[in-house]
Input
Amino acid sequence: MDVANKPSLPMNQNLPPSPGTARSSPKTPGTATGSAMRILIVDDDPLLCGLHALLLEQQGYDTVTAENGQDALTQLASGDFDLVITDCKMPILDGPSMVLALRSAGSRIPVIMISGTLAFTPLPRAVAREVCIALVKPAHPKEILAAVATALAMPRASKGSHPFPSRFKTAAEADAYYMID
Output
């Protein structure tokens, strides 16, 4: 085939949104009210963030992205979310510290942690008990969708209490506490 006669594909049609961008989907999975479940995706890699958002939007979820734990906490304070999917290693505020800050503030939102470091280094115990599901990057799209379905199906505790008590502000504090025998 002559290379000059190959049809060209349009470039940059489906770029991921910039961090902090809300994306809506017309489908509404698993809700009686007709509103889509909202998922906050936290990762410092904008491409991966966008790919996860696209995958979940194709299944009918609304997604919002954040590029680090601090941005995620800001998003969580100003919005109503059903689930957080977060990376572990990020600048400014990492995933484990963000999760512990959420729990310290009394949030009961389910959290899925996806990280390449989990293949080599397990989460600190104090953080692991705060996370519903931990996946190793690169996670297969079917793994991500199964984890989302599982996390959203988990019952939440009543207001004022949550199944993830935490007294630590950072992952380092939690590690120091649990290293004592």
About this structure: Strands lie at 22-23, 38-42, 62-66, 83-86, 111-115, 133-136.
